[in-house]
Amino acid sequence: MIKEYLAAGDSGDEERLHELLDADIVTHSPGGGLIAGIDDTLQTWASAHRGLGALRHQVIAELHSGDLAAVRVRASGIHNGPFLGLTATGKSVSVDQALFARIAHGRIVEMWEIVDTGSGLRQLGMLPDGQPLGP
């Protein structure tokens, strides 16, 4: 189901996202952010598409246990618009991501995301090599 979610998000298929996601979905995003509801989730995808052309999520590994699923993902795109507060660089970026999901009644109801933001910032020239992200 997570593979379908990522494919629908990458293609901008809002109808399919509505089918896969609970209306009250909650996503715990990196840095402690919270995305609440399907409308906010759709806005998050739209923002990603505005900032990253050729956006693609490739699932590398997946695990399922009961109502929980986990995937290791390689997310990539071309930074051709504002993204995460950064002005477009035109550079390609590819980062590792982990996504955990809880599924109920055939829909994704809750997700947790971990993204290697530091690597992405280094690729975009926003963080020097070797410098850690954060204090």
Please tell me about this protein's structure:
This protein has 135 residues and is of the alpha+beta class. It is 28% helix and 45% strand. It has helices at residues 2-11, 14-20, 38-51, 117-123, and strands spanning 21-29, 33-36, 52-65, 68-79, 92-104, 107-115. The chain has a six-stranded mixed beta sheet. The protein is globular and about 45 Å long. The model has no long low-confidence stretch (mean pLDDT 94).
Write the layout of secondary structure elements.
Blueprint: H1 2-11, H2 14-20, E1 21-29, E2 33-36, H3 38-51, E3 52-65, E4 68-79, E5 92-104, E6 107-115, H4 117-123
Helix pairs in contact: 1-2
Give a count of the beta strands, DSSP E runs of length 2 or more. Answer: 6
Radius of gyration: 15 Å
- The shape, in one word, is globular
The low-pLDDT segments are: none
Q: In the residues, how many domains can be counted?
A: 1
Strand arrangement, largest sheet?
2-1-6-5-4-3
The biggest sheet amounts to:
6 strands, mixed
Share of residues in strands: over 45%
| CATH C-level class | Alpha Beta
Mean pLDDT: 94
Annotated CATH topology: Nuclear Transport Factor 2, Chain: A
End-to-end C-alpha gap: 37 Å
Order of helices and strands: HHEEHEEEEH
Describe the structure using short key phrases.
single chain, 135 residues, alpha+beta, Nuclear Transport Factor 2, Chain: A, six-stranded mixed beta sheet, 28% helix
